## 1
Amino acid sequence: MKTKKLLVLALAIALIVSSIGFAGAEGNLSAAGEYPIWTGSEPATITVLIKPSDYVEDHKDNVYTKTIEERANVSLEFTYLPAVDPDDKLNIMVSTGEKLPDVYVGNLSNAVAKSYGDAGALLNVQPYYEQGLAVNVDKAVAEFPDWNLLTNITNADGSIYAIPKIQTSPSNETKYKMWVNEAWLKNLGLEVPTTTDAFYEMLKAFKEQDANGDGDATNEIPFITSTGWGGTATKYLTNAFVFEGDGDMFLLKDGHVSVSYIQDEWFDSVEYLKKLCDEGLLAKESFTYSNTDLLAVAGTDEDVVGCITNSSLGFMGAANDPYRLRYICIDPLTGPEGVKYTAYNQSATNGQWHVTTYAENPELCFRVGDMQFTEEFFLLGRFGVENENWQTAEEYLAANPGAELTARYGSMGYEPKYVFYNDIFGSVQKINWYDQMPYFSGTVECEGAYVSKAADGTTMNAENNCTVRQETASGVYQLCKPGMDVYVPNLSYTDEELEEISESLSTIKAYVNEQRTNYIIGEESDLADSQKFIDNLKSSFNLDKILEIADTAYQRQYAAK
């Protein structure tokens, strides 16, 4: 109790100090949305706490830093957390009441950020949002309402402790993709399957008809996958029956939160997967193999694998590796009831730029964070300097007459807008902060383009370029993502709600996946009796309480909006 009182007192003092700083600086701040933000004759100093990066040679002598400084009329001074256990160090600094720099740059979950706010270390910046000072964030929210840019970083009590960061990636959002051996389809005269029935018949043909044409009809593995990124066979196939995303496997039923694994259609999907396994069409090793294990089977001269589920085939080598080029990415399948979803998981919006209660000019700090939430800063922060690391498509074509461009995600309707080259990501450099900015990707990556025909007439074979094929597929998969009448975005719980269900949430997922796997591969499982399975979810894992609290959180965050 004493500690809590001290924390409250510390917070009150910090807020007073912040208010004094805000009031004293008013005359030196431009109107919201105008630059420079600081109008004083000398740049205002902002101290920044950040983790060191192996890929950033110098934060101070850095193009991204200098761009901020020039645009806002500020001087950024950096303090570093230790390279080893930086999060632990930050936690100690907060818990001991150590004075922090003006801004902390780094990813914090809502729960952690709020706890630091409750401890008096971070400033609740929700009033700044309410006052219209987040000009660029507000523009993004209005342009992309389905991204939940603010709701995803808003706590149950309405507090917000950050300028967000979001990098949308169509490929990562729809990571469970099916890759089918194209030569096997041609050898057997088969069409690309579009339904679960056709997929089953294809696998039977792969198993029985010497699909690889080596004269041995017994050495083919129709379907094998891994537990790697996007490799779970269950996620791809279940979505032909009922929507099942990652995480907590929530979905909406009649406007209220439910879970996929109590729906009749989900049990149908489990039976379908079991049939594939029972008939030797889906290898049992799929549920234990790593990507390395899978590569040892599929990435060899022996062409023995018919299809794989994975986000990409990057684990098999370079884009034009012959083993990768065996496979084409097929669309999500349509199930027996006409369902055709993909296991979509919305790109996460994270808090990234946090104003501390020690900031002398908190509004200035907040607005400098908001200033970076634009496509312009994202381009610099992710891809580098214009005309050195990237160009607009218009500029590139003007400088390279005769060249032709292909949009990375043309299957989603995007036109080429940017051409990226001299990629600096993953290199030691002084251009940006390597993924530690409060950035906003917008549609930049979707509007990126490949040079499909160079000025000298050289063409890229898009049919055989694995990267293009993957991104084309990702665009198609995006068209199969669930609508907001089905999808449940990120949920923010109160401390009390989280305390009540956090343990159950983690254990129930493990139980569901374990029992499903066991049933599919023919081992003992509670799924042998679906009603017993559901009853156990309620009695042993508190499912009814999970759904009650999750629905309360959903209605609070999204339904009213």
Note: The first strand starts at residue 44 and ends at 50.
## 2
Amino acid sequence: MLTGNTDLQIQADIFNAMSSPDIYPHAIDRIEQQDTIISKVFLTGQYAYKIKKPVNLEYLDFTTLENRKHYCEQEVHLNRRLAPDVYLGVVPITFDNGQYHLAGSGMPTEYAVKMRQLPERLSMRNLIRRGKLDRDSTDALARKLAEFYQQDSADNQIVTFGSWQTIWANCEENFRQAEPFVAEIIDERKFQIIRAATRAFLIRRRALFDRRMEKQKIRDCHGDLRTGHIYFSDGIQIIDCIEFNDRFRYADVTSDLAFLAMDIDFEGHPETARQLIDAYVDYTKDRELFVLLDFYKCYRALVRAKVNCFRLQDKNYTNHEASGRIRKARRYLDLAYRYAVQFTRPTIWIICGLPAAGKSSIARELAGAINISVFRSDEVRKVLFGFEPFDYRNELFEEGIYSKKASSHTYAKLLLLAQEEVKKGRSVILDATYSREHDRDGVLCLAKDMDANIIFVECVASYQTLKKRLVERETTVTTSDARLQHLKQFRARFEPLTKIRDELHIRVDTDMPLNECMLQILSHDHSSASRQIAELMKNRLSDTT
């Protein structure tokens, strides 16, 4: 809400004065104005002046001159972290001899943040829209952000803002504030699905949020990281961080990055968003980010939908401007809905490949990373035929419990186990050679019937590595009965995954360190899930038209 008439009248007079060149102590090219709910910006060509409005909202209080001065100083201080040469200081606006002056004599009546005006043509938003943002620039931005998040040690007080309880409260606050606009502007069905998906994710992934705190991934971030706030001018300048509420800035780095990735998606360039995130993870090795990304993208998209709804309460908008806000709010809601489907839709992971290719190591690491069940054919097979998992069976190739009939039973059981998990809305990992196209077709059909995503992770390794690992099995306890003497036959039997679409198939060289393998897998998973959801949405749209 706005304060009394005194402050409003003074600001109206100041805004009128700043619309004229006379008040500026420097040459100007032209005067342009930008309005938001909480501020007004005057652009003069060389410099920009930002004045905070005397508003009191749920999350900020600019109602006193003292507060406005304080938050102007905060804005300069905080934004110098990412744009040190842009923020020049806080300038008093004084009144003397019947006139307003910038940094003149007399009593200060208002304060403005003075900034070096950046060329709009070099904003990230503008560059993306014109197709001028190259891969090198995206990588440089990822590196700058990675360095920014690591420049200070995580403060213990800041880390608490990443607690599960805080994240839950933030999400619930978001829903509560958006709820008045449901039905009239926001689609109720989509809103309810987003809310249910968010709550389910939080309940299911509570341990992950705790782990992020332990790993000190909660930082003093930017808080409003959008394409319109990033400029590729004299390096990279990132402006307009949140200064008025620490709670909006203290967050998991994933939440900050998700805002930017979501904004890039909104501009219609998801591939650029993927490049940015992949580059960031490559620099930081923070593979958990992929697990959280869509959740936070959803949260940020709903925030933007809500903000556009809030702005409709300004009665000064024309009908045309109001229609534009409504369209934006609905586009952001659609984006939030899409993310919610992505992070809740179960995925069937097929970890396949030759014996000793590293399948079980990958499956075990993946299961730990995303907290889902893994079913191994070696264990399922032995239990199915009445043996203990670690009972060694010295069978001939494709004989005994490894006969074609026994293998058919084993793969059928794996399908049943996967089906039960997916029915519960859970992702699942199946660890087996899946050497035959027939067996792969079976799990593809299951994914289609169960409306689930599917990813084939084909583990490969050099022949020497396979031999070495199989020799080591002779002296170790393992559930697998495959030995070196079987390798030639396994290789001859393995049918290439040529019919699996690229977006559903990732080939991982397990000669690489395990951590590098996991980064490759999780990055591909996020990209694949996005493409599968896009296809799903397209099909659903076609079904309704």
Note: Residues 514-544 form the longest helix (31 residues).
## 3
Amino acid sequence: MSWLKRWEPEDSQFWKTEGSGRAWGTLSVTTFSLLASFATWFVMSAVVVRLPAIGFKFDTMQLFWLAAMPGLSGGAMRTIHFFLIPIFGTRLTITVATFLKLIPMVWLGFAVQNPETPYTHFLIISFLCGFGGGDFSSYMPSSSLFFPKRLQGTAMGLQAGIGNLGVSVTQFITPWIIGFAVVGAAGAPQLFTKATPVFDVKITKEAGLVKDVVVVGKLAEAMTVVKNEAGLVQDVIIAETDATKGMKTEVKKNEAGVVTDLTVKKIIKKDIWLQNAAFWYVPYLLIAGIICGVYLRSVPMKKPSIAKILKDMTDNKHGYFMTWTYIMTFGSFAGFAASFPLMIKTIYGNIPGMDAALAPDPLKYAYIGPLIGSVIRFAGGPLSDKWGGSIFTQLSGVGLIIGCLTLIFGGLLTPTSLDSFPMFVWTMLWIFLMAGIGNFATFRQYPIVYAFNPRMGAQILGWTGAWAAYGPFVFSSLIGGSITKYGSAIPFFAGAAVFYLIGSIINWVYYTKPGAERGDWGVGKTWWDRISESERQRYISMNP
């Protein structure tokens, strides 16, 4: 039987005897599936940075669009999923959603094996990856229905935190898993080409000319520096030895034949199995889908009409206010998770005058930010239950503003060398941390705002989540557009800072300041606890 006959989590006896085990079991199963959802949603952000090196001729804006497209479909799908739990229940909705993610994963695994695969195919695949982002609006509202108000922050923080680890998992595991034929039988490898600088060769320049070349180590005997009568370098010749295998010299000369710049690179060519980045999720999704279909049950509820659901969300100011703050928090997390690898590649891989071989590998850093944002969610969930969600949302907004201003005024978005790269990474990690704090806060905060109606509280999670899911699309497209049109991402981050400021003001006025209209200051200290019993009954009767 799919639907439970009774569900009363606020009844202490029911919770102790029946509710707790079923609630935590459901949370475990759905979280197991949700992790794969986020991995599917963000797999393109990990794959796209490798496409140029295996022969795909996509320009910068095309790559940003591939990273952005899952956000477009994820937001649209969340709008659909927003209505599904009240109508179809947890079991059917979550099970079908899990199996649907097999479509983009299988298709992507085959598409990356052929450099002639049309760009439009990748756009469609990227769009379908958004299935993994869309079903969040079913997972979180469903889970919120299973728990009493006092555990909302803990439960939602755990699910969101562990589920969102899927972003870090896909970005962390991709460089490793594509290195060998884990599922090599499903396709041939691709030739990955990368040039790395040879640091045993040092040059000194004077007045724009190479004055001297110093070769150390084993290369000293294999390299000959040719100079003219004036002692200026005219050429560098590399003998073919085991020590110089794969090395290539790039020499720039002026009209007089004098060397003005010299770079020695080692060309690395190796086989990779980029299809593994997608194919390894297939058995995971199959197992998760089967478990969901067998174990999950649905909370009984009055099934409102679609018109009623929309009216509940849009007929009051709080639906709009919370949508703003959730875009500020989760929208930022998802948006930067999708765009961070390409930001590294574009901003610090194309510094004027810098050898491209020195550029940092985006996937060595990209997973750290989503990991921090995810871990802080389940670590901070109990804190939001104790002290309230609104104060942490406030902290998140202020922290995000500080991060944006640091990037802008610290010159981190317009680097002239790699010296500023560590600070850029640390600032982005700060932004991920602040976004993660805001996430565990809002998961606690929103059900409290609608304490008079748990169904409505669950739906607001889906409603706000649907809009915030556009974060990867909006952030990636706007960052890419800002870089393409203005030469830097400064305009984007300036606009983001203003957006965060408005969100912080809204949160302070309506949810955080003493006596706030729908304030949440911890267990037993919410706006709902503050009003009289007669007022509570009035709210309940007005919002069936």
Note: Residues 12-47 form the longest helix (36 residues).
